[in-house]
Design a protein that fits this description.
Layout (H helix, E strand, L loop, with lengths): L11 H9 L1 E5 L28 H10 L4 E7 L25 H12 L2 E7 L11 H16 L6 E7 L6 H4 L1 H11 L4 E5 L34 E3 L12 E4 L2 E4 L3 E5 L12 H4 L5 H13 L3 E5 L10 H14 L8
Helix pairs in contact: 2-3, 4-6, 8-9
């Protein structure tokens, strides 16, 4: 079985990840049509009914902002799948719009020379056998096989979320990691709340293991993980890179992800522009500088609205930050 290898320096694929520096998160899915951040998996799949999904708009914006990759939602905690799949009836295939959004995002990224990354929730509030751990592990492996078997091209990152809902062992992360590396060796795997010792704390990292308190050789709770995650937080100024699991030391960069606006507003809603003020573009630029100087990565979330397009005020603010950083590009389109 392929697993993460110990080391005190970044391996070749971690080096490639570090060089990607800057990415765009696009939260879009069932929650967009429910005005919710997290939904419980009971909504009728027909509730998801966009008139269009403009993934090219996402990619063009990311390119112009100087970003190198886009991180798209393939399945959030509600279990609704954003690609054409027969593994579940809770997917775009059975929705109000059967467009394979993952395929559209893949095409758009290729057009603009961007890399593609996937967010996938381990937690699934719709799957009827979610608590049958072996059956559910096979279900996840079947879904991840579809996402990574090449039909969507090269995938550079798998961002796993929701791991707090079960003890780490029940997710069978070594099997997931092995599958990913066999299908796409370059794909970097990260699990949210991965650092700490929190098996008995509901799977959440305690205050001691929040990113601002990371310390050299802290334990890895969600193993294997090629890089660290805990959104929407930032690491310390002197960010350590070496962490431990069963007596071995592993190098792990950090990917910081936060919303374009203040507060927890990952998905678009009726309240989005009214209740969530934009982060100052100078703050976004400063976070980019800090993280890239640390050999870490920075991802800014711009949610798509119900018409499948990013919000113009988010775009304008992001481009001001990119202009300040000197990384803005002209797409020519």
């Amino acid at each position: 079985m392929i697993t993460m290898l110990p080391g005190t320096e970044p391996n070749v694929y971690q080096q490639q990840q570090i060089q990607r520096k800057f990415g765009m998160f696009v939260h879009y899915g069932m929650n967009t049509f429910l005005n919710q951040e997290w939904s419980d998996g009971t909504a009728d799949p027909k509730t998801y009914a966009p008139t269009a999904v403009d993934c090219e708009h996402w990619a063009k914006t990311a390119y112009e902002a100087g970003m190198s990759y886009i991180l798209v939602i393939t399945k959030h905690h509600d279990g609704f799948c954003m690609w054409d799949t027969d593994t579940t009836p809770y997917s775009v295939k059975h929705s109000g719009n059967p467009l394979d959004v993952v395929a559209e995002a893949s095409r758009a990224c290729r057009k603009y020379g961007l890399k593609l990354a996937f967010y996938y929730s381990l937690w699934d509030r719709n799957c009827p056998f979610y608590h049958e751990h072996e059956a559910y592990a096979e279900y996840m492996l079947a879904q991840l096989s579809q996402l990574l078997d090449g039909r969507y091209g090269e995938i550079v990152e798998l961002w796993l979320d929701g791991g707090w809902d079960k003890p780490a062992a029940q997710w069978q992360l070594p099997r997931i990691y092995d599958l990913v590396k066999r299908l796409q060796p370059q794909c970097q795997v990260g699990v949210n709340h991965c650092i700490g010792n929190h098996e008995l704390k509901g799977g959440f990292a305690s205050e001691k293991y929040q990113p601002e308190h990371y310390d050299l050789h802290d334990p890895i709770a969600m193993f294997p993980s090629d890089f660290r995650l805990l959104d929407p937080l930032m690491p310390p100024e002197q960010d350590p890179k070496l962490y431990t699991y069963r007596g071995e030391v592993y190098y792990m960069p950090f990917e910081a992800t936060f919303c374009s606006r203040e507060g927890m507003c990952w998905f678009f809603s009726d309240r989005y522009e009214k209740d969530f003020p934009l982060h100052d573009y100078r703050h976004i630029a400063e976070c980019y500088r800090k993280l890239t100087e640390q050999q870490n990565l920075f991802v800014v979330n711009l949610p798509a609205d119900r018409g499948g397009r990013l919000v113009q005020s988010d775009i304008d603010n992001l481009l001001k930050a990119s202009e300040l950083l000197g990384i803005r590009r002209n797409s020519g389109a």
